[in-house]
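Table S2 (text version). Query chain:
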Amino acid sequence: MSQTSSTRTEAQSTLTRLTFALLLCAPLSASAETLTHEWVQDTKLYFTAPLRWDERNWLQFGASLAAIGVAHEYDSNVRDHFASSSNTASAPRSDPSLRDAAPAAAILAGTWALAFAWDDRAGYEEGRMMVEAGLFSVLSTELVKYAAGRRRPFETASVDDWSNGGDSFPSLHVSAAFAIGTVFAESGGDDYRWLRRLLGYGIAAGTGYARVEHGAHWLSDTVAGAALGLATAQFTLNRRSQRASDASLAVMPQPGGFRLTYTKQLDIH
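Corresponding structure-token output:
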């Protein structure tokens, strides 16, 4: 690939990441002050989570590595299946990055828009969790990309072109889509759980397919991105449950009326 094409691809990739970051951060401005402590705590817990993993977590991690390994065996075959003269020797003629990011972005934007329109506290919380999961998945993906240095399918014919300054592994689009999509799928009431899961997981899986079809990623890149996004969403959802268990609201009957009590567990060090 020519130097000009490489520079253009790098610029497009940078633009996509900046767009992701701006989109995910946009809803934070109104509530950043009140949520600072929670964000700091969650960030610390997220990046030190492996120190507290139990047997189930390690089994999940092992299963993810196995899935990535199996996908890696088919990387070349899948690439050849989708290959065309327009995207094997050079970057795709039109950059599909923003288009591939649009479905996950629509879920996030739609959640915030409905929450604002209905002044729905639960909707705001769901949107906040999407933002948190999305940001954590983006940060984690960028760290792994830097360490792996794998080149993309349109940059090399070798599936094992690692530590060569590339940014293919894992897929940022897929990790963010699965982080946002999983929060969407597992939030809200159970009445429409099937629909939420169909949309959330369906859009995330569709994003992975699109990235492979467009020649932007190897199959194993998307599997790794999905595993990272799912784990990040799981962490975010667990943190919501923990915060909910730390606080309780109760209505107690008493002579002449009712008494409203609120209990909040405080961590004092």
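Notes on Table S2: DSSP finds nine helices and two strands in the chain. Confidence is low (pLDDT under 50) at residues 1-5, 85-89, 247-252, 265-269.
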